[in-house]
Structure formats: C-alpha cells, structure tokens
C-alpha cells in the first residue's frame, strides 16, 4: 500500500465497528416503527387491544436487542480506539526513525560538500605543482580518500 492510497476496509476493527453501528441503527428504526404502531392503534375493540399488546411485547424485545447492539458498538469503538492508539505509537516511532535518517543524510551531504570544496581547493593549488609544500597539497596527500586523477 502506498502512502496516498485510501485506507484498507478489510480490517476487522473497522468492519466490526460499522456492522455494530448498522445493526444498532436497524434495530432503532424497528423500535421506532413498533412505537408508532402501538401509538396509532385505537383501543376500542378487543382485537385492537391485543394488537397493541403484541406491539408492546415486540417493542420490549426490540429494546433488549438495542441494549445488546449498544454493548457491541461500545466494544467495537473500544477496539478501534486501541488499534488507533497502537497505530499512532508505531507512527511516532517511525517518525523518529525518519528524522534520524534525514539527519544522517544531511550530515553525509555536508561532508560531501566539504570534500568537494577541499577537492576544488586542492585542484586549484595543485595545478602549479602538486609536489609543492602548500597547505592544500599536504592535506590532499594526508587525506584518507584519494580523488582520482583526471587526464
């Protein structure tokens, strides 16, 4: 996965979270429908009283399912939070590694620039005579890194 790719929806925590939220939403709508149905029924006949009683019973059962779905959602949110915190800690550790590596690269570039400057000075001073006893020619002879001679 590349840095700019969208997040992967295959993770268990995200699907558990969305499934728990959707299940709770469906059950809340079912409960609302049952409550509306119980409120609309006229209690004028024995049959309508029985229907209202059945609606109340189904609403009570739905309320129990709502409580279970809320618990599942809370657990899924807790799991997602723990995963996010672990991911954030790993990301911070990686950021520290990246910062250290950037510093190493900057140090190498600085040393390379200094070597380039030293090579430039040596080259300018060595044109008259590389064997002359100038500070630069002595530095070039003492340098552990030999620069290749150019034709």
Order of helices and strands: HHH
Number of helices: 3
| Largest sheet properties | none
| SS elements, strand count | 0
Helix content class: over 70%
Strand proportion, as a percent range, falls in under 5%
Distance between the termini: 49 Å
Mean pLDDT: 83
Q: In terms of per-residue confidence, which ranges show pLDDT below 50 for 5 or more consecutive residues?
A: 9-13
Coarse structural class: mainly alpha
Radius of gyration from the alpha-carbon trace, in angstroms: 38 Å
Tally of individual domains: 1
The rough form would be described as rod-shaped
Keywords, please?
mainly alpha; single chain; 0% strand; 151 residues; 3 helices
Write a structural description.
α1 runs antiparallel to α2 and α2 crosses α3. About 5% of the residues have low confidence. By secondary structure, this protein is mostly helical. The longest helix has about 80 residues. It contains three helices and no strands. It is about 80% helix and about 0% strand. The protein has one domain.
SSE blueprint and pairings:
Layout: H1 12-40, H2 46-126, H3 135-142
Helix pairs in contact: 1-2, 2-3
Question: What would you say about this model in short?
Answer:
The chain is mostly helical and 151 residues long. The protein has one domain (12-142).
């Amino acid at each position: 996965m590349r840095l700019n790719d969208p997040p992967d929806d295959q993770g268990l925590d995200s699907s558990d979270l969305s499934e728990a939220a959707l299940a709770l939403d469906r059950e809340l709508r079912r409960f609302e429908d049952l409550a509306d149905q119980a409120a609309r029924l006229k209690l004028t006949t024995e049959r309508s009283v029985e229907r209202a009683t059945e609606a109340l019973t189904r609403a009570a059962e739905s309320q129990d399912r709502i409580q279970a779905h809320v618990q599942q959602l809370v657990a899924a949110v807790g799991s997602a939070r723990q995963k996010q915190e672990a991911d954030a800690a790993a990301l911070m550790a990686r950021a520290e590694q990246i910062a250290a590596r950037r510093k190493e690269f900057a140090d190498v570039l600085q040393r390379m620039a200094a070597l380039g400057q030293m090579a430039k000075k040596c080259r300018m001073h060595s044109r008259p005579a590389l064997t002359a006893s100038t500070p630069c020619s002595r530095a070039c002879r003492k340098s552990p890194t030999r620069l290749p001679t150019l034709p």
